[in-house]
């Protein structure tokens, strides 16, 4: 990259520099002469080299009319300029008779606010470049440039064509980003020179003054950076009593910092062409030559013209390339949408393939955080660093988005991982659920130190003060660059937001779908329950008929039947009794399916007393029944009648499935705190993190095989034949489970065959 003149980066340096505005240096470069004229075209100021070019000392020219020097026709060209806008130049051929010979010049004239400036650059011929010559050179270049729509290819052609025309050692295209920082995006160079392509520079690299000048004058030519500058005589313009404004002057001298800076790079000649977009400086075509090199005014003009063509063409190429990039991002978004909406595993859909997540915003690493699980993709800080970063970034987020291209400056902890994450783009999809996606960009490290030894950069001035030259400031800005990533483009931010919207949309629509399914499920459950109720209810009547008629047959017609017939009839009777039991169980279950809980504050001790009383009353051996209650039960909110049924059923089973000579049952509970920390011997450890008391009924019965611990809760599931353990419908536990679930509770069992079982349940 060419460091345009006045490359100063830090505030201190800028201050020094700004004190000496670059448009009024009071001197010119020595490859031509400058005459400042009053509006009456009288010579009022000249460069102190008139003798060398015009054969006249300044004092021979000052105060004289310009006509003293130029012919009538040339005077006409100068006069025309008076009617033009400030800075618009008129060029013409000039021939001047010096003492020894006739000399030819390119005369370039423009006016400032108060003066007219005529610059004369020596040329070999008095004839102007013909239009055909100009067309041959420029036309071919333009035709090539128009052939491509790809921006980078286009700029490469531009660099090639400019290099062909001016023959410099290196031609680069330098582009500014939104922050004003820049990079070399195209380069054509002599083979033996090291490449500058891809190097990045901070915004402060080109001070505001220089930038502003580049937007007004599209070409700056310094043919010899080692040349001595030529002072104007007198130093101040006599008309305005101020230094002459040389903003539009081609010969304007450059400052020593600029010269030194470029000489450190080995550059002796410099040509810079502005590239303008929407009246702003978009970039520069910067040309270096390693020895002083002069090119004619006409060739310079052609380069300026090419620059203007490039500026016009740029708009199309930029929009084409941005459009291409946007299309790529859109297609990635569509891809995401499809895979996320179809995926069972949401995270997998996001991070596979990994490259897609990175490409979406052109990042080199990403972290997907869902609840507390973090998945890393590409080059990233480690999980703990990402976790801490999220905590911090969460406080910075507005509109669920946070991005920076210099994270370590905002968050010093990031210094450790600046190589992977100097740039951060964070998307907060849900704070409650802790959904975050983070993208990272590495530090931009492609910088080059052209500034030489920083210790040499402080220069003592003749007045005893010191001035900072770019070398010192270069070191400082390199520091700045070190903690910076490439900036996040608007379309990349939009891309991230689109992904977030897609995720939110899909998650919401999944929730919607789930709600619909739930509604449907509830409806079909209700239908099933009412069907079961109707069916069981209606079945009872014919069953009763079968039972009644069979009993009548047995009682009144036993004498006409043989023994087999009687036995068959007895089986019919007992089967119909069993069937009624089953139907009753089904009926009860279907009733529960439609039941509304009638919850009330219930002292479970009272409730349990009733249960035990009824239980003892139903058994002849009630004196032998050992029921232990280690501590009083709590008072809870529940449906008394139904919870009574739960305890009755579980208590009944505890004694029913027990073949020990000394049977006992323990009824108790574990408080919320004890839920996760009981000990197996006395109070078991059933369910960690319980929110409400866990009730248990423990027996020393026959136990249940491990593989049946869940199946026993199914309707009509029995583990034994009818004859054993007093028979049963196999519906008790299904009903218990239903009641517990109606209370939003859970039921489960632990058991050891031959030792006993523990049934646990909660009532939320
Ligand atoms: P039923 O007692 O009518 O068979 P349940 O639904 O109450 O129906 O019980 C289902 C099955 O679970 C029983 O057949 C029995 O095999 C087993 N079971 C229930 N409670 C216990 C227990 N406390 N000890 C051992 N087995 C049990």
Descriptors:
Beta-Lactamase; alpha+beta; 6-stranded antiparallel β-sheet; 764 residues; 7-stranded antiparallel β-sheet; 20 helices
Model description:
The protein is α+β, with helices and mostly antiparallel strands and 764 residues long. The chain has five domains: 7-22 and 130-234 and 246-320, Beta-Lactamase, CATH 3.30.450; 27-123, PAS domain (Beta-Lactamase, 2-Layer Sandwich), CATH 3.30.450.20; 332-444 and 488-508, PHY domain (Beta-Lactamase, 2-Layer Sandwich); 509-572; 595-762, Histidine kinase-like ATPase, C-terminal domain (Heat Shock Protein 90). The chain contains 20 helices and 27 strands. Strands 1-11-3-2-6-5-4 form a seven-stranded antiparallel beta sheet. A hairpin with a 4-residue loop joins strand 5 (102-111) and strand 6 (116-122). Helix 6 runs antiparallel to helix 9, helix 17 packs parallel to helix 20 (732-742) and helix 18 (604-617) packs across helix 19 (640-656). The chain is rod-shaped and about 165 Å long. The model is unreliable at 1-19, 446-458, 464-468, 471-477 and 677-685 (pLDDT under 50). Residues 653-654, 657, 699, 701-702, 704, 712, 717-720, 728-734, 757 line the site of adenosine-5'-diphosphate.
What's this, in brief?
The chain is α+β, with helices and mostly antiparallel strands and 764 residues long.
